[in-house]
Write a structure and sequence with these properties.
alpha+beta; DNA Polymerase III, Chain A, domain 2; eight-stranded antiparallel sheet; five-stranded antiparallel sheet; 7 helices; about 35% strand
Amino acid sequence: MKLVFSKSELSKGVNIVSKAIPTRTSMPILECIMIDSTEGQIKFTANDMELGIETIVEGDILEKGKIAIDAKIFSDIVRKLPDNDITIQTDDNYNALITCENSKFNISGKSGDDFSFLPVIEKQKSIRLSQFALRELVNQTIFCTAPNDNNKMMAGELFEVIDSELKVVALDGHRIAIRKKKLEGRADDVKVVVPGKTLNEISKILSTDADDMMNIYFSNNHILFEFDQTIVVSRLIEGEYFKISQMLSSDYETRITANKKEMLGSIDRATLLIKESDKKADYS
């Protein structure tokens, strides 16, 4: 295999799929990024068996092939290379030669045939919204998840679509965040729980342009995000989510209306007198 990339395109592709590289695993192949150019386009794939990402990277294919390369080493090399064209060439023993100007790196790879590819998802139900909208929905709710809690539901967020309105809910036993978004076009009714880790990682690679759209597909066990030239597949959290309507009451003794900017400024100034150790909530 022999491929040529611009540094910007290669860095972008590596950064996207690296979000699905596990921090710890007993399977060394999962620590790799799969590079596949056998079908006339260059695909980068990473998969930790719970979250998988595949993206198409722009580049020139001089010789087709595929190889799995250690993600950390590959990422570090690409980051340090000069801002010029980068060539990746492999041999029959899965050794990769990475060159750019006067820099050369020889690293050992693994057979692409051993890699765990993404599952094929039946696109049973779907919704469509802008990447910016999903990014905002996640950023405004994800802080209420409890990733280390024994209750798996608190580690995820509820995605519920009713009558073309998407409701996203997160709670950690002490706080609850709810965001709603009216959807345009086709929007199938659905109710699933998406892992917070998946949403946190995908929010980092979504566009901030309100005109960049994306599709989200749902099956019984998986959710599929499709945008630009990237797909993200994640397992769903099984089980029944909390009955939110029973937790919220409309019978409040006190209700206030405040200017958001002024309130945030007041809170920011007041927290100057709080010790750093006290700012971290203890939910044990």
